[in-house]
Design goal:
With 391 residues, the protein is of the alpha/beta class. Helix content is 31%, strand content 19%. The chain contains 8 helices and 14 strands. A hairpin with a 2-residue loop joins β3 and β4. The longest helix is centred in the C-terminal third of the chain and has 27 residues. It starts with 8 loop residues before the first helix and ends in a 5-residue tail after the last strand.
Amino acid sequence: MPRSIRLTVATVVLCGAIAGAQGRQDATPPDGPIFRVTVDLVQLDAVVTDKKGRHVTTLGPGDFEVYQDGRPQPVVAATYVVTEEEWVDTSGLPPLPPEALRPIDARRVVAIVVDDSRMSFESMHHARVGLGEYLDRHFAAGDRAMIVTTSGGYGAVTPLTSDVETLRRRVRNLRFSLWNVQAASALEPVDTRLFNPYDLEAEFRERAFALNAILRIQEAIKALRPLPGRKSVVLVSEGFSIGGLGMDHTFIRDALQRLVDASNRAGVVIYALDPRGLVPIGISAADAGMGPRRLAGLSRLRSAALRESQDGLRFVASQTGGFAVVNSNDLAAGMQRIMTDQRGYYLIGYQPEPGTVVTGRDEKFRRLTITVKEKGLRVRTRAGFYARPTE
């Protein structure tokens, strides 16, 4: 490292701790935040997988390349933090009461945000069944979770709990509301858009649903932030549009960037689950009464509407290093895949170029890209951050 690079005392200590842990596959999760921004160091988390989706755990600083706003940055530290091996097998011991479990003892922490404000009756049923099966089969001793609904309004976040019976009760209480009839799912407005693809009213509704989901996720992130280590938010939703025709979506994308930054600083990864499963988009018997003109474009528009709604889920998840589970009829398996992804992660530290961190109102959103030199590996990490120092 050139002598001109002068790190602060805190950064030296941090880099030394990370470098000292390099090569140890049993490194424990940090007690403090996993995402930090200083003048001399940016630290963030990332997951590296192979072609089969398996975690790759043996990489070091020299294997990573970090780009900030498209420009390469020097990587000064990288270590794999194992969370799975820190889990304690308590199968032969009496379980602790929920109130005895401290936040720092939690092995996996997840907030499940159910976007029930626009969910169809069938999707609500699938969500209840899938989440119930997840709790029955995969929720383990030491896990902590909360259930949040988008219809609950501001401040409706329930407390984290490790009591599986409490969580089962909250899942059973999820209900389809007749109010949802006015909040058509992503595929239902297709008929009106056959003749009016620039339906501003439909676009306005899509923006409203997207912003409502973002606000509820932000509340969940705020509740998770005080806990140490890496946490997750799972958005169970039929999706929402972040693009489309006829309306400027700059406001939504700005809200998403703020969401990404809040997620970063709280050490939260967002995942998404589409409860609709495999959605039929072809012509069915129910469409028999339509004229040839409508039938000709119906399947195409249904496919476009489905893809657009799922792109919203993919975008929200990918911006924070997560992924979206779509086109699957097994929601419980999707939840298990998400929980399996919590087994570990890399902590990567790089030295940002001068002028990255600013104070005041002139802050910019710095876009991040992390790659690895070995071919065939995929990196999932956060899309970027607002260039202000971590509090």
